[in-house]
């Protein structure tokens, strides 16, 4: 008898485990099957392991229309291919389109749900979002403009004295602005700065686990509860979590000490510390919240500016003369443009918008959204729990909105045309998840584009024979954010007078930045 009971019990345990693991998937499969005739159109087979999935998504939206259905593993996935579809769903129906898909490895196990960017639509996310909104809303961000202006003067000087290192200089600028407005300490060298290094490591830990298909737990969420002693992948990710905690709390402790000593300048960390008790947040929640801007704001700002340089090299003849004529008229030859000049620089503003449109860094439209209720759009069924991807590569290169889309043409933004929203492009996303750093990010892009155009001629580099070296406007990096691969170009001052102004304004900026530089040594 006993000899029968043991195999029967084992068999039953296997069946129950299988059902527990498979139940959510079987239930979802049934729901999709029952609505199969109403699902949006989509390809019969999937392409997996693509290094640049946005290229395939563009083909799909060109073939199937603005709303495409993909069955990616157990999760229904919807690709939106036009500004209007993204607006109609992510903005207007934001109440049910603002969650996130589950990121079990990156969001739950590595980050213990403390990274708001990956958090589902929830009370925690709302609290986190409110914090970022208060820290970076328009009025608050205007308070960061002096730092952006000073760092931009440093950037202009770096471009003057070492133009071939332009990419590193753009990264330093973006990192320094974000670290200064977050922790009140600046970045002098992006290669050796300790905060930059620590944050880059944390980003590395996150991206190494956020790889679709790499871990079975993403497909079978119940595996999350297997004790770490039986699951080396889980033990490892929990070890990585400890490193993140150590880093984020270390940075916040440093800010706390400087606040106590009265040396912490106004910054996001100071705001968080001042408001901590009224916000009812733990030290750890606070430390992770302060880490947000670095992850979201550095690559995006630097990558957008790198695309601008690329556009200058490829299309400069068609727009730089007009931009420089406007700058000469409005600003004159004796000083760099300032934030106050921007409203009068209509053409330069169009160059800024076209930069963000032409090569959107957030090629996939940022982190995917997820739906929290069933929905029907133009007769198509969009199931609850769908992952929604609105790739900006499809949306910004949609011929219907932007004819001849790979041409860099600022004039598009000077003509009347219909486009949902107020910006004329969608570079910062939509609705409740719209980029909270959009004022800071767009100000960084705008002031530097205005100043580069004012101070320099950006043209193709020349080879030994004096021939112009062409650039490839499609040579972009893989990854969540996509920016130009290294390319050569020539950045020279427009005249010796322009160069002198850059040197003079840099000297003044160095003095003013001193108080942020001193703090940089505190870690
Ligand atoms: C040119 C610079 C930038 C670009 C192009 C950009 C673009 C984007 C995009 C497309 C999204 C996704 C929005 C959506 O899901 O609908 C996003 C989200 C986000 N951005 Fe930015 N961004 C930039 C700069 C910044 C900066 C400087 C910060 C720092 C405060 C920041 C913080 C965030 C955060 C925290 C989110 C996630 C919001 C959420 O999940 O609720 N971004 N950004």
Name the ligand types: protoporphyrin IX containing FE
Q: What radius of gyration results from the CA coordinates?
A: 25 Å
Helical content class: 55-70%
Task: Please state the structural category.
Answer: alpha+beta
Q: From the 3D structure, determine the CATH topology.
A: Cytochrome p450
CATH class: Mainly Alpha
Q: Can you put this structure into words, describing what you see?
A:
It comes from Dichotomopilus funicola. Belongs to the cytochrome P450 family. Keywords: Heme, Iron, Metal-binding, Monooxygenase, Oxidoreductase. GO terms for molecular function: heme binding; iron ion binding; monooxygenase activity; oxidoreductase activity, acting on paired donors, with incorporation or reduction of molecular oxygen. It is a single chain. The protein has 523 residues and is of the alpha+beta class. The protein has one domain (35-516): Cytochrome p450 (Orthogonal Bundle). The chain is 55% helix and 6% strand. The chain starts with a helix and ends with a helix. 44% of the residues are buried. The structure holds protoporphyrin IX containing FE.
Topology:
Elements: H1 2-34, H2 53-64, E1 67-72, E2 75-80, H3 83-92, H4 94-97, H5 104-110, H6 123-136, H7 138-142, H8 145-161, H9 166-183, H10 194-209, H11 216-219, H12 232-260, H13 268-279, H14 283-330, H15 346-358, E3 369-370, E4 375-377, E5 380-382, E6 387-389, H16 392-395, H17 438-455, E7 456-460, E8 489-493, H18 496-520
Parallel strand pairs: 2-6
Antiparallel strand pairs: 1-2, 3-6, 4-5, 7-8
The structure holds protoporphyrin IX containing FE (HEM).
Protoporphyrin IX containing FE binds at residues 117, 129, 132, 136, 292-293, 296-297, 300-301, 304, 361-362, 365-367, 427-430, 433-437, 440-441, 445.
């Amino acid at each position: 008898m006993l000899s029968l009971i043991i195999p029967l019990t084992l068999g039953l345990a296997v069946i129950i485990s299988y059902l527990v693991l498979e139940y959510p998937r079987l239930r979802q499969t049934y729901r999709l099957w029952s609505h199969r005739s109403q699902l949006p159109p989509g390809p019969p087979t999937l392409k997996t392991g693509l290094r640049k999935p946005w290229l395939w998504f563009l083909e799909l939206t060109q073939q199937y229309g603005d709303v495409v259905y993909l069955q990616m593993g157990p999760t229904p996935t919807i690709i939106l291919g036009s500004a209007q579809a993204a607006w109609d769903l992510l903005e207007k129906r934001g109440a049910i389109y603002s969650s996130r898909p589950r990121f079990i490895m990156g969001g739950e196990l590595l980050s213990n749900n403390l990274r708001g960017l990956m958090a589902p639509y929830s009370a925690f996310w709302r609290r986190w979002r409110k914090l970022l909104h208060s820290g970076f809303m328009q009025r608050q961000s205007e308070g960061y403009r002096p730092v952006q202006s000073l760092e931009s003067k440093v950037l202009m000087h770096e471009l003057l004295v070492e133009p071939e290192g332009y990419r590193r200089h753009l990264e330093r600028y973006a990192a320094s602005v974000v670290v200064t407005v977050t922790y009140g300490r600046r970045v002098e060298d992006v290669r050796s700065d300790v905060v930059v290094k620590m944050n880059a490591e944390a980003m590395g830990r996150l991206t190494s686990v956020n790889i679709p298909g790499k871990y079975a737990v993403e497909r079978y969420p119940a595996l999350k509860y297997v004790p770490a002693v039986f699951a080396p992948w889980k033990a490892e990710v929990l070890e990585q979590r400890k490193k993140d905690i150590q880093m984020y709390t270390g940075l916040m402790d440093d800010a706390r000490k400087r606040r106590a000593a009265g040396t912490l300048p106004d910054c996001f960390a100071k705001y968080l510390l001042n408001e901590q008790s009224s916000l009812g947040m733990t030290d750890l929640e606070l430390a992770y919240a302060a880490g947000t801007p670095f992850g979201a704001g550095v690559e995006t700002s630097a990558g957008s500016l790198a695309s601008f340089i690329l556009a200058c090299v490829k299309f400069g003849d068609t727009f730089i003369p007009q931009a420089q004529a406007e700058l000469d008229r409005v600003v004159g030859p004796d000083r760099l443009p300032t934030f106050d000049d921007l409203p009068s620089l209509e053409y330069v503003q169009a160059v800024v918008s076209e930069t963000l449109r032409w090569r959107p860094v957030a090629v996939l439209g940022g982190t995917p959204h997820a739906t929290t209720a069933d929905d029907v759009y133009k007769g198509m069924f969009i199931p609850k729990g769908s992952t929604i991807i609105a790739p900006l590569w499809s949306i910004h290169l949609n011929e219907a909105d932007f004819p001849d889309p790979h041409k860099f043409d600022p004039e598009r933004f000077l003509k009347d045309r219909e486009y949902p929203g107020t910006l004329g492009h969608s570079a910062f996303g939509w609705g409740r998840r719209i980029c909270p750093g959009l004022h800071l990010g767009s100000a960084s892009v705008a002031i530097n584009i205005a100043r580069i155009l004012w101070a320099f001629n950006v043209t193709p580099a020349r080879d030994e024979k004096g021939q112009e070296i062409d650039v490839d406007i499609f040579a972009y990096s893989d990854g969540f954010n996509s920016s130009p691969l290294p390319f050569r170009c020539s950045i020279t001052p427009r005249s010796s007078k322009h160069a002198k102004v850059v040197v003079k304004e840099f000297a003044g900026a160095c003095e003013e930045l001193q108080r942020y530089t001193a703090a940089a040594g505190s870690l």
